[in-house]
Amino acid sequence: MRLTQPPAVLIVAAALWAGKTAPAEEPIDLDFEQAKQAIEDGEYDVALALMDKAIARAPNEAKYRGLRGAARLCKGEYAKGEADLKAAVELNPGDAGADYRPSTDAKLSDAQLKHGRRQVERMLRDRPAMNQYGDEARFLVRWAERKYAGEDFGDPIDWDPTPPLHSDAEHIAPEEDANAAVLIEEKYLQGPQRGEPRSFEELWAGAVFELHNVAFAREFIRLHEEADEGKLSKEQFVGGILRFELLAAQRTRAFYLTQFLPWAAKKKLPTDPTLWFCEWWDSPATVLDSFDDKSEYPWRPYAREYDWATVHRLWHADKFAEALKLLKSMRVEDGYDDELAEVFFWIGHCLEKLDKPADALKAYDRAIKLDPTDPASYRARGQLHKQLGSDAKAAADLARAKELEGEEL
């Protein structure tokens, strides 16, 4: 159901991303970028040669050690890869993985532990590939049970089987009547494997990241509230979220290094370190500079969330023309087809406030065409028809709104 004011944005955090580039104001590190591409192409010896050369030039550069470790692990060289990654974490300034502990000594109640077990049972039921190794991977289950129980967050976290909106794994912030929740995509969303199931390691990498990331949910809420109040620029908002996600990524990488990798090495299982952020060695202070493509993560989806917060603020300040201008720019953005009906709904509202009823009707028409199941658009159009004296059209729209509202109950 659409809200009666511009929508409060769900706090959603993306687990895996692509399109990361070097900072726009710094020279591109060709060796590093070429080594990343070589790993992506499966040319691990090429990546190793490039990183050997880079390490000889700059032996204390964390990213070179980390990427060489990733290439070695892709080749199945577990001990050498692990050693490189450990060295990279130690060399990386302020890396949250340096003193990482997978679990705390926090005392969890029987009720909390029961909740955690129930959520993991549901997750394994809904994503059966995560249970591929059964009791052999029990350490993952026990760890996740404590996280869902609220070990880090302080409050229980739910498993949500709904597919994420924007990425492979996401979380939703808690509300007054709902716990925080973790969502993990079961299948590939794009590429040659589109529609095929994702692997055991891919699913668990997403879960581990989001169960670290959701621990910062209250910080994400604070950032959204400050955006709502106009206290942050778009860059500050996106950068703030990104810095916390970097910390979650560093903890996820440390979990891989201390928990998942030793298990995979013992079983001689192939592993993909790029799923665990072994290519990402930015510092919190400079991390936003590394993402200059506004069509990619983190600008997508967080810049969009900032725009909705701005619409909300402008609406309540009676700045309808400014809100309309922003909504029209949101209308043409690619990749947000699921929000188009919402955008046109609020375009209609703004046009009504600007005394342009004919244009407002067209906007409501478009919103209904895009989402014919939303009662709010019918109600808004019906009320406008009534104001314009089109009683029959008003009655039809209001009746349809009432019918759809009944279907939602």
Would you kindly provide a written description of the structure presented here, covering whatever features stand out?
The chain is 56% helix and 3% strand. The N terminus is likely disordered. It folds into two domains: 273 residues, no CATH class; 91 residues, Serine Threonine Protein Phosphatase 5, Tetratricopeptide repeat. It has a three-stranded mixed β-sheet with strand order 1-3-2. Strand 2 and strand 3 form a beta hairpin. The chain has 15 helices and three strands. The protein is mainly α. The protein is globular, with a radius of gyration of 24 Å.
Can you tag this structure with a few keywords?
409 residues, mainly alpha, Serine Threonine Protein Phosphatase 5, Tetratricopeptide repeat, 3-stranded mixed sheet, 15 helices, 56% helix, disordered N terminus
* Structural domain count: 2
Q: In percent terms, what proportion of residues is strand? A: under 5%
- Radius of gyration equals 24 Å
Q: What strand order characterises the main sheet?
A: 1-3-2
Averaged pLDDT: 91
What is the subunit arrangement here? Answer: single chain
* Spans where pLDDT lies below 50 across 5 or more residues: 1-13, 15-25
Helix-strand category: mainly alpha
Number of helices: 15
What is the percent of helical residues?
Answer: 55-70%
Helix/strand order: HHHHHHEEEHHHHHHHHH
Instruction: Describe the main β-sheet briefly.
Output: 3 strands, mixed
Instruction: Please give the number of β-strands.
Output: 3
- Envelope shape: globular
N→C terminal distance: 11 Å
